[in-house]
Amino acid sequence: MGSPLGLSKAALALSFQTVIFLSLPSSVYARPSPGWPMVINTWGGPFVNATDAAYEALLRRDVSALDAVEIGCTVCEENQCDGSVGFGGSPDENCETTLDAMIMDGVTMKSGAVAGLRRIKNAIGVARAVLEYTSHTLLAGDLATQFAIDNGFQEENLTTDATLARCATWREGNNCQPNYRQNVSPDASAGCGPYTPLALDSSSPDYFGLIAPDAAQASHDTISLMAIDAAGIMAAGTSTNGASFKVPGRVGDGPITGSGSYVDGDVGACGATGDGDIMMRFLPCYQAVENLRRGMNPEEAAYDAVLRMVRKYPAVASGIVVVDKDGEHGAAASGWGGTFTYAFRGGLMNATNVVGVPNICVPDSLKTQP
Question: For 9-157+222-366, which CATH superfamily applies?
Answer without folding.
Answer: (Glycosyl)asparaginase (3.60.20.30)
